[in-house]
């Protein structure tokens, strides 16, 4: 279990937002917990100096490409990149310094898995440099489904062992945001953590709702020590009060 730092970009600025409020058709819904005065490259350089590889840069919508490239240049080979990744552009992001590309929407359409897109991505970058984002929300039936388009659109793909087994044949890692609790600093999605923690396969990074060291301890226990983690709004680095950056780095 290790800390995976993050750089979330919205309109070119490093921000922490409440994930479920990000809606293309209603920008007034957006709830922003933190907007940084520092550029993305500032955080990337910090992670480089502290030897924290495997973090991710997520581009939430358009207007983030320049900031993302600057972050990758500040920590070449140390960060993964996600947001609008396709088989056509994935290689250019690796050339820009990304350690891996993160993909969701490109491999789904109308709620279904696009196996040809998935195969094209694997050919383009190689399995070990592909991270599949299975970020999810809980439906009315109490089960978690993968969501795409910045967590707005439900797919018919369930987050369950069979799904993890399927995608693990094509990817080197998973990134899983619990989108319902993302940015709320009110605790982790315990049922999701237990579900993905019970699966023993490729590395998985959990994100969503972490607010304190107690949450990290709970995540470690529910995840059986298998889950890496990222912390956003609760981290003092992003204006939070629940966990210090030093505590996140040291947690095991």
Q: How much strand content do the residues show?
A: 15-25%
Task: Describe the strand arrangement of the main beta sheet, using strand numbers.
Answer: 3-2-1-4-5-6-9-13-14-15
* Poorly predicted residue ranges: none
Mean pLDDT: 93
Overall form: globular
Radius of gyration: 16 Å
Structural key phrases:
8 helices, globular, 25% strand, 10-stranded mixed sheet, alpha/beta, 252 residues
Q: What would your notes on this structure say?
A:
By secondary structure, the chain is α/β, with parallel strands linked by helices. Helices cover 27% and strands 25% of the residues. The strands form three sheets. It has a ten-stranded mixed sheet. The chain has a three-stranded antiparallel sheet with strand order 10-11-12, with no helix packed on it. Strands 7-8 form a two-stranded antiparallel sheet. Helix 1 runs parallel beside helix 2 (65-74). It is globular, with a radius of gyration of 16 Å. The mean pLDDT is 93.
Brief characterization of the structure:
The chain is 27% helix and 25% strand. It is α/β, with parallel strands linked by helices and 252 residues long.
